[in-house]
Design a protein that fits this description.
The chain has 642 residues and is mainly α. Among the domains are: 362-468; 516-640, Histidine kinase-like ATPase, C-terminal domain (Heat Shock Protein 90). 75% of the residues lie in helices and 6% in strands. It is flat. Residues 416-443 form a coiled coil.
Length: 642
């Protein structure tokens, strides 16, 4: 009898381990789970066999019943710890961390994930260590802690390349691409995702559907909606068969694309399906995001009552999420304004403004680029150490040859000199590669900051500016009662005047962060407009007026902005002359003022000036300072054009 049970257990083990298991329906998984429970309760099994069955049960329940999955994992972990079967502990603790992460019980999840990592390190099992880091990276990501997420993903990539573990390499590359996409650096995101797909072709493996999902999001952000929809549908077809959790992400992405295409019927269908699946998995975070998407669709359809209802329900779920909180606050403010609920609209408008301030992630680009440079530098350092080891061996062989073959001294000396020259050439090449890598990384940071300035400028102008304009319009339509006192009338008039001033100041700040004229007409027109806005500043332009590289134009504009502001704020200047000269080989910016001046040798330069000087050095530019106390100052920036 026991032999029959064991045979049944082995058959079930083979079924669950096969690739076809992922295609089973919920009903089929339930039937297989019942068979496993029958074996467990009617057979005299060893501890190892019991552990295997609890692992199989967690796989059966994993796609549709989170709480039963956790129960099976805990029972398997209890046996493994009691019997000191340490090799099973990393799997059970890691899996428990994953499912508690889905339930947003982050402290419990982190405890299990840390236990899994510590056990894997103790066992010196590099593959289990990689799996633990993968899950920890997702734990950070779920809480919008992007710096820690990227740091952990880089560790996954480093370890998986050393093992090697191609599956984990795919995962790390996809996650890094996803992070760059989240932060708006779409070129870097596409680079890592394409690297993922190239790796699958190199090893002749199936393409990573997560890369398809992320590329679809990138194309959606770029406005290529048909291409985005094609990628998301391909990814979704695969996720429906094998990974139901990520089907939720795909459904939400497709709903957003259909919303942008104004095909609202399909958008609602996918949004509601994502909410249904999220509730099935007890994933409150994804349920909240799905409801936010649905409220946006209702807002676009001007179904303000339904928009307010679903958005408020999502808000009660979780109002602190940075990835959907701002949109929920905006939907609630806008819907209540349209429904005439001005007090509620005001409350959510203030919350939206707070989210806008919290959403400034400009520092992340620098941090991520620094970590990427650190990762690449470690690889280069390994190459340098290898070359140095090789060089030492050549020297040892040369000395031995001199002792053994004194008559061949001349030949060996010549060979030694040739080797030294080769190594010097190799070291020069490595140094040049490191400099090029540093340049690329710095330019990537500049691109990220420029993109962030553009996004914040657009958010301030379109989001906050638009809402203030609506408030002004509604205030302007108020009919003041004749019985209102003169004092109250004056207060109302002053409030309207202050609102006008605030709108003007908001637009000025948004314009200075990333002037539209800079992107559209170039540095000459943009800088001329800026100088014209300040009475003390005179602008002169010499030479040609071609369009330069957009990053260089932004750099020149920010330098001029910094120098003019310094002259106005710190030098008490009454006249400032700005001169821009552009020809085919050189661009020169000179800012001259009649202010108090300073001693260049003793002055303490601020962070803004130091940051400006560092960025100029990226383009191999020069900055010359001429100044004396009470004699004004003249600062010239020169950058050669290639």
């Amino acid at each position: 009898m026991r032999l029959t049970k064991i045979v049944l257990y082995i058959i079930l083990l083979l079924c669950v381990s096969s690739p076809a298991f992922s295609a089973l329906t919920t009903e089929q998984r339930e039937q297989m789970a019942d068979s496993l429970w029958h074996v467990l309760h009617t057979s005299a099994l060893t501890s190892k066999e019991q552990i295997d069955i609890y692992r199989l049960l967690s796989d059966c329940y994993g796609s549709y019943d989170t709480y039963r999955t956790i129960s099976c994992l805990k029972k398997g972990l209890e046996i493994a710890e009691r019997e000191e079967m340490i090799k099973y502990i990393p799997h059970f603790t890691r899996s428990l961390g994953v499912y508690y992460n889905m339930l947003m019980r982050y402290d419990t999840a982190k405890t299990y994930l840390d236990q899994s990592l510590a056990c894997a390190i103790k066992m010196k099992d590099r593959r289990e260590e990689v799996q633990a880091y993968r899950c920890i990276a997702h734990w950070y990501y779920r809480q919008n802690r992007y710096v820690e997420t990227l740091n952990t993903c880089m560790e996954v990539l480093r370890l998986s390349e050393a093992i090697p573990d191609t599956s984990s390499q795919f995962n790390a590359l996809s996650n890094i691409g996803s992070l760059y996409r989240e932060l708006g650096n779409f070129d870097r995101a596409e680079y890592y995702l394409r690297k993922n797909l190239d790796l699958s072709k190199k090893y002749n493996l199936p393409e990573d559907r997560m890369a398809y999902y992320e590329l679809g999001l990138i194309y959606m952000e770029r406005g290529e909606l048909d291409l985005a929809l094609e990628y998301e549908i391909k990814a979704n077809e695969w996720f429906k068969l094998s990974y139901k959790t990520f089907e939720i992400y795909c459904d939400q992405a497709i709903a957003k694309i259909y919303t942008l295409k104004r095909e609202y019927t399909q958008a609602i269908e996918y949004a509601e399906e994502s909410i249904r699946l999220a509730r099935e998995f007890s994933d409150t975070r994804l349920e909240t995001i799905g409801m936010q998407i649905l409220s946006t669709i209702y807002r676009e359809q001007k179904r303000y009552g339904e928009c307010e209802a679903i958005a408020f329900k999502a808000w009660k779920n979780d109002s602190t999420m940075l990835d959907c909180g701002p949109e929920l606050a905006y939907n609630l403010a806008y819907a209540n304004l349209q429904l005439g609920n001005r007090e509620k609209a005001s409350v959510f408008f203030k919350r939206y403004a707070e989210f806008v301030r919290e959403y400034n992630v400009k520092g992340f680009h620098q941090t991520m680029a620094d970590m990427e440079i650190k990762y690449e530098t470690e690889k280069k350092q390994a190459q340098i150490e290898s070359l140095e080891t090789e060089k030492r061996w050549y020297i040892v062989l040369s000395v031995a040859g001199l002792l053994m073959l004194l008559l061949a001294f001349g030949l060996l000396l010549s060979r030694h000199r040739l080797n030294v020259q080769k190594h010097r050439f190799a070291e020069q090449q490595i140094k040049q590669l490191e400099q090029e890598k540093q340049l690329v990384a710095t330019l990537s940071v500049l691109e990220g900051e420029n993109a962030e300035r553009s996004r914040l400028s657009q958010d301030l102008h379109d989001g906050l500016g638009g809402m203030l304009s609506v408030i002004k319009l509604n205030l302007g339509n108020i009919q003041l009662p004749p019985t209102m006192s003169e004092t109250d009338r004056n207060r109302f008039t002053n409030a309207m005047s202050m609102l006008d001033q605030f709108i003007v100041e908001l637009r000025r700040v948004a314009h200075n962060m990333m002037p539209e004229s800079l992107m559209r007409y170039g540095i000459k027109t943009s800088l001329e407009d800026f100088c014209r806005s300040i009475p003390e500043v005179n602008f002169q332009f010499f030479g040609e007026n071609p369009r330069l590289d957009s990053r260089l134009e932004v750099l020149i504009y920010r330098c001029a902005y910094e120098l003019i502001n310094n002259a106005v704020k710190h030098a008490s200047a009454t006249r400032i002359d700005v001169q821009l000269t552009v020809d085919k080989k050189l661009i020169s910016l000179t800012v001259r003022d009649d202010g108090t001046g300073f001693d260049p040798k003793t002055v303490h330069y601020g962070a803004g000036f130091i940051n400006m000087r560092n960025r100029i050095s990226v383009y191999n530019g020069k900055i010359n300072i001429y100044s004396e106390l009470d004699q004004g100052s003249e600062i010239t920036i020169e950058i050669e054009l290639k």
